[in-house]
Design a protein that fits this description.
The strands form two sheets. Strands 1, 4, 5, 6, 8, 9, 10 and 11 form an eight-stranded mixed β-sheet that branches. A three-stranded antiparallel β-sheet has the order 2-3-7, with no helix packed on it. The protein has four helices and eleven strands, in the order αβββαββββββββαα. It is of the alpha+beta class.
């Protein structure tokens, strides 16, 4: 095969590739409201993408293999909800009109992942969703605290809750 044919084959392959192969998975923001995990996007993502639209949310226990879904909701049809950094979707709280599974009680010492299935209105933006991980730890007063796991933490890769979190050191 001469060089001209090789280049044409390469170009044909590249132009026929599925665009989703170039997609981007952004990081979800995980916070806590009265010890319950709450999920949203960061202010940085909102500035970058405008207002992404949410179609579904899924939470998995990834401490066990294969991972087990512990809660999810989906909006029917083409219905979506705006995802603003100031709007947080609370674990177990189902938005109006959404279909959901029953929320399983979350356990301390377990690693969970969340996926917010949403994307910006801009078709040129490659973002295809928002993913995050978190753990729950027991607090001294018998409650629980949400510990967000960032992508730059070893716990993100290991999928094991870190033993020495700032909250545990202070107890």
């Amino acid at each position: 095969m001469n060089h001209r044919h090789l280049i044409l084959c390469l170009l044909a392959t590249l132009t026929s590739m599925d665009a989703s192969a170039w997609s981007r998975m952004a990081e979800a923001e995980i916070s806590s409201f009265k010890g319950i995990p709450c999920f949203t996007i960061s202010k940085k993502e909102e500035r970058r993408n405008g207002t992404p639209m949410l179609g579904a949310l899924m939470v998995y226990d990834i401490s066990i293999k294969p991972p087990v879904e512990v809660w999810s909701f989906i909006l029917p049809g083409a219905t979506t909800l705006p995802m603003h950094a100031k709007i947080c979707y609370l674990y177990g709280q189902v938005p109006a009109g959404a279909e959901s599974t029953a929320a399983t009680m979350l356990k301390t010492g377990r690693m969970y992942s969340v996926f917010l299935n949403g994307r910006p209105d801009d078709p040129s933006d490659s973002t295809r969703g928002y993913k995050g991980k978190f753990c729950l730890i027991a607090t001294a007063n018998g409650g629980q605290q949400v510990i967000p796991i960032k992508r730059d933490m070893q716990a993100w890769i290991d999928e094991i809750c870190p033993a020495n979190t700032p909250a545990q050191k202070g107890q």
